[in-house]
Amino acid sequence: DARVTQTPRHKVTEMGQEVTMRCQPILGHNTVFWYRQTMMQGLELLAYFRNRAPLDDSGMPKDRFSAEMPDATLATLKIQPSEPRDSAVYFCASGSSGASSTDTQYFGPGTRLTVL
Amino acid sequence: AQSVSQHNHHVILSEAASLELGCNYSYGGTVNLFWYVQYPGQHLQLLLKYFSGDPLVKGIKGFEAEFIKSKFSFNLRKPSVQWSDTAEYFCAVNEYSGGGADGLTFGKGTHLIIQP
User: Fold this and answer.
1) Among A46, A54, A53, CA closest to A79
2) The domain spanning residue B12 has which CATH number?
3) What is the number of CB-based contacts under 8 A between chain A and chain B?
4) What's the structural domain count of chain B?
5) Which of A16, B13, B42, B62 sits a CA distance of 20 to 30 A from A83?
6) B111 at the A interface (CB within 8 A)?
7) Nearest C-alpha of chain A: how many angstroms from B90?
8) C-alpha A102: how far from chain center
9) B36 and A107 in contact by Cβ < 8 A?
10) Is the dihedral of CA B53, B57, B59, B65 positive or negative?
11) Dihedral sign, Cα of residue B57, residue B35, residue A8, residue A75
């Protein structure tokens, strides 16, 4: 049963520290999405990649957030420096997209981030 | 920009009652429509999806949804709910644009509580 995996599952850090979240998409999926879930804003798209190339990161605060895909099996989301308002659950999702495909996004378990 | 509106933020029902959760979206192009469920403390799971064809789609756990293009609606239904259906339900939409589907735009969610 293929699943998206995310690490760490929980992270507590102090304001100003760097946070790195990792995601392993389902093998064979070529699209990776990062979402953030908060009580106030709900679920928001931060960024996504297709075939490891960034397609849209307009939902991401550019000054402190960065997203990368070093290889097809790893996506990272980094916050530097972190702030209390970044506290949220960060979800990674993967899917298989193509010119003639209809794709479904499969979500990972999320990383619950608390910035003190 | 796309937006998704879920009319009911909190719904409380008794077991065996019928369920309908409203979802409207605003976008004039070709969209894909989804309902996801999030059980307490868990990640999002796909209930059902609509890409094209029959506007009445059936999903897992006895759920179904009907796409009414003229009303920009994609309401979720279940004829008889169970206590185990207690969860958060999210309607989502994305656009298919040639190379693949974009990131999802989510509604704010509906918190469903089923009383035994």
Assistant:
1) A46
2) 2.60.40.10
3) 63
4) 1
5) B42
6) no
7) 9
8) 21
9) yes
10) positive
11) positive
